[in-house]
Amino acid sequence: MRATRPFATLCTSLLLAGCATSVIEDNFATLDELGRQRLGSELRWLRTDEARRDMTQEVDQLLASPLGADAAVRIALGYSPALQALLADAAAASADATRSARIANPVFTFERLVRDGHDGRELEIGRALGISLFDILLLPARRERAAQRQEATRLQASVALVTLVTDVRRAWVRAVTAKQIAHYQQDVASAAEAAAELARRMQGVGNFSRLQRAREQAFHADAVAELARAQQHAAAAREALIRLLGLPTAQAARLELPERLPDLPTVERDEKEVTQAALDERLDVRLVRADLEATARDLGLTRVTSVVNGLHIAGIDNRETGQSRQRGFEVELPLPLFDFGDASRAGAEARYLAALNRTAQVGADAASQVRESHAAWRTTWTLARHCREEIVPLRQTISDELVLQYNGMLAGVFELLADARSRIGSVIQTIEAERDFWLADATLEAALLGTPVAPVSLQGRPPPGDAGGGGGR
Q: Region 103-114: what's the mean pLDDT?
């Protein structure tokens, strides 16, 4: 019978260790479900060298073609070192929460005292095994508090996950947009260069004044400077995306972006449905509600433990040379002589009141942020469609009519060049409007999930082609 006790103890220890691992796996499964259902990709936790090699091969396959937004999210959720660190930190926090629910280990005390006297040496041995009864009595409350910590860990990790995906989508939009704008700025610079060269030749034959040539050269110089800025912005946006994806140098060199942003959606989103979904599903609202419930339970626990906060019992076995064996027990109970717990109770009540008001404020902020994000979504959607369906076609019509006038010798070549610059400028405006929409779309999705992002700031800018002077006459 005695031989089975160590084995039973070992099995119990293994079972408790397995519980911590099981909770970590459950938390990861919750995050993976969020990634699949709301973020568009599965979550990968690379805990072995084999898993890292497999994911590296998968990333290489994704980089073999131009990287779309969904593919970028897939890489971020399975390859980014920042995400892997997030998962590891969440696992550590989960393990700490699991450990907090367990009873403290018993304390074994051993004493060996030797006394030299006239009658010889006397030996006294004392042994005690103690455990806190207070921990046992409060075990249900500790387990409940640990479950609340686990829920908070899951919600905090979910918020960080949504923030990462939102940052990746916004960085992808900026990188693709910057690439498009740099391409069209190259067309503007080419048109300006042609106009400057033509102005130089026409001045050489006496058909152009020095002022007219200087205007074209000045516009060309401005176009070259704008092109350099656009190319630098495209490079910086691309590197920002690479950092979020966590790509090493070799894979970063193979990253190719699409030539343009996706098409705009054809249907507008309803504000009432969007707002209601936010109030029901936002992570920050769920997090403060969980904190409020935990604070309320802590308040009740503080009212119990504020006066008596410890009860320790120990079994004692003493032996002394020439004396009979002593056996008994010892009870340790703190006496509330100086601290009656009033400060602890007052502090707990104040923390509950703060949590209650914080929950109300987060709920109000959530609804407001969703309304603001939806308004930005609707505005940018309308503006992008207006640019795509109204401004660009009108610019094309003007160009077609101007070509007809040029063929009839009613317009000169400089008018054609100036119109080309204006048309390219309107295309750039459209690209920026579409960029603002997709940024607003990512912002709205983040607001719906509970990680609000600063809304898109709309800043109008004239088409680059309108700023320069045409050759004129």
A: 80
pLDDT in tens, 19-43: 667 878 887 787 878 777 778 788 8
Count CB atoms within 10 A of the CB of residue 108.
10
Q: What residues are paired with 125 via a beta bridge?
A: 112, 319
Residue 195 near residue 417, CB atoms below 8 Å? yes
Higher per-residue confidence, 198 vs 272: 198
What SS3 class is residue 454?
A: coil
- Could you tell me if 459 and 384 are in contact, meaning their C-beta atoms sit under 8 angstroms apart? no
Q: Which domains does the chain have, with CATH numbers?
A: 12-467 (1.20.1600.10)
How many of the other CB atoms lie within 10 Å of CB of 356? 14
The pTM score is 0.74
Identity at 84, one-letter amino acid code: Q
Count CB neighbours of 220 within 10 A: 22
Specify the residue for token string 């449905």: 273
pLDDT of residue 10: 36
Contact 97, 153 (CB under 8 A): yes
* Interval 145-185: pLDDT, tens: 777 778 888 888 888 888 888 999 999 999 999 999 998 88
Measured CA distances, 270 to 240, 263, 292, 316, 438 (Å): 33, 20, 31, 72, 17
User: Which residue stretches of 205-321 are H helix?
Assistant: 210-245, 249-253, 271-281, 283-305
Look at residues 163, 196, 8 and name the one whose alpha carbon lies nearest to residue 80: 163
CB 191 within 8 A of CB 227: no
| Residue environment code for 165-203, b if the CB has 16+ CB neighbours within 10 A, otherwise e | bbbbbbbbbbbbbbbbbbbbbebbbebbbebbebbeebb
| Structure token digits, residue 371 | 């309304």
Q: What does DSSP assign to residue 270?
A: P
Tell me the torsion sign for CA atoms 452, 454, 458, 463.
negative
